[in-house]
Amino acid sequence: MGIASINPATGITLKTFEPLDETAIAQAIDLAQQTFETYRHTTFAQRKAWLQAAADYLMANSAGYGKLLTLEMGKPLKSAIAEVEKCALVCRYYADQAETLLADHPIATDASYSGVRYDPLGIILAVMPWNFPFWQVFRFAAPALMAGNVALLKHASNVPQSAIAIETILRQAGFPEGAFQTLLIQADQVASVVADPRIKAATLTGSEGAGASLAATAGTHLKKTVLELGGSDPFIVMPSADLEAAVTTGVTARLLNNGQSCIAAKRFILHEAIAPQFLDRFVAAFKSLKIGDPLDMGTDIGPLATPAILHELDQQVQACLADGATVLVGGDPSALPIRAIAEFQQGNFYPPTILTRIPPTSAANQEEFFGPVALVYTVADLDEAIALANQTPFGLGASAWTTDAQERDRLLAGLEAGSVFINGLVKSDPRLPFGGIKRSGYGRELSSQGIQEFVNIKTIWVK
Fold first, then answer.
1. Do 354 and 409 share a structural domain?
2. Which of 50, 112, 128, 287 has its CA 20 to 30 A from that of 201?
3. Are 374 and 266 in contact (CB under 8 A)?
4. Residue 397 lies inside a defined structural domain of this protein
């Protein structure tokens, strides 16, 4: 259908959009470049005022925008509202910190003055995903705009109303026309945008395939990219762990956003000494969750974003079972009670599912499961846990649970991931850099490292 909002709980099309043609795209790039020539000279104080105004607007309208996110991609309303509020947090962080993070950095040499300054690059293209329609965009836009860049957004084709809303928010906050523009375009139109010499860099959050395609195109034109791609994050639990906290956090870590998160815990690696107790509690928690209308504030699990995602996830689960895996809970979307309600019969609902006894030869061990499915493994010791955790092409995040200091240090050093959390939920925080290694991408978002990705780190030397 192209660019369209389709309610994933009901299958009803809410609104459709025509992609921009080449003329409209060229006009948007022209405007962005014209705006950059003046915007780059605005002060940090002015940009801060605009970004703080955006944060205020987000907080004042979080319920309305939360409903929009739920209608477009199906996340429970309470999670959607929290996402909008987190966007205000990242706006406030960079509004307050950008000037310090980008301050000139003197370095003593044989010059009378030398060091580093940070200048904006120009137009930055952001290709963003549907799973966190506001957060993924604002965590890029806040630092990019505070650095003096201007931005073009190519959002996922199933969340166009969210894309339009973000541009509206930033314009209402005071940012000049052309500082941030949404391009309603298809994936096959991205390459021509990247090729324009006025586009200086690009960032993408999404699938491996999309990241590789953007990187290849940008590489042809010698343009920098930052990629945040998929993940198959391990969640390791050792005997010394606080089991109750590990189970509670594990449920959230796997099922947040209906399980559709790159940094969700996907592979649960349990020491054999505590595996039975953990699984008993884990299964009970999964069974207790309410699956239903995502607009109901009491709902824990809503629908997956598209029928294609539902189909792919179900195929992955069925392949695991065919390989000899055991299902402890879930695994059969046709058995969900919500499917008996006429309004939701076409919804993309999938039950929270736990699979164990997955054979080492199963393809599941190298895949990302993008939905509410937990893969459980049992190991004999810490060495085996770390080896299994690293036995994946991905390297985004990792969570490990132990109160043993030696185990903690070995986990922090040995786990191959962009983020390692001990006794906590892997999450993004504006104060900390975020990104992956291996096939999970490269570069960093957030913190000082994030804002410095898209600036000219200029060496200056004065005799």
1. yes
2. 50
3. yes
4. yes
Above 60 in pLDDT, residue 1? Answer: no
Write the pLDDT tens digit of every residue in 310-342.
999 999 999 999 999 999 999 999 999 999 999
pTM for the full predicted model: 0.97
d(CA 47, CA 176): 10
Tell me: do 237 and 224 sit in the same domain.
no
Q: Are residues 337 and 195 in the same domain?
A: no
- Residue 2: pLDDT band (50, 70, 90) is confident
Across the chain, mean pLDDT equals: 98
Measure the CA angle with vertex 444, ends 442 and 450; round to 5°. Answer: 150
180 and 277 fall within a common domain: no
Which tokens go with 325?
Answer: 């895996």
- Does 435 fall in a domain? no
Q: How many domains does the chain have?
A: 2
pLDDT of 193-242, one tens digit each? 999 999 999 999 999 999 999 999 999 999 999 999 999 999 999 999 99
Q: Do 323 and 250 belong together in one domain?
A: yes
CA atoms of 158 and 72, how far apart (whole Å): 7
Residue (of 12, 15, 114, 133) closest to 70 by Cα position: 133
Q: Give the Å distances, CA to CA, from 152 to 140, 145, 224, 307, 406.
A: 11, 11, 15, 28, 47
Sheet holding 233-237, edge to edge: 326-329, 353-356, 373-379, 265-271, 233-237, 397-401, 419-422
Name residues whose C-beta falls within 8 Å of residue 335's C-beta, 6 or more positions apart in sequence: 351
> Which two tokens mark 246?
């590990």
Which range of residues forms the domain containing residue 31? 3-229+440-462
The whole-angstrom separation of Cα 139 and Cα 94 is 9
Active site residues: 228, 262
- Tell me how far apart the alpha carbons of residues 41 and 39 are, in angstroms, rounded to a whole number: 5
Query: What mean pLDDT is predicted for residues 68-79?
Result: 98
Q: If we measure between CA atoms, which residue out of 352, 335, 336, 35 comes closest to residue 198?
A: 35
pLDDT of residue 103: 98
Residue 100 has pLDDT above 80, yes or no: yes
Helix, strand or coil, per DSSP, at residue 268:
strand
The string of pLDDT tens digits covering residues 260-280 is: 999 999 999 999 999 999 999
Helix (H) or strand (E) holding 329: strand 326-329
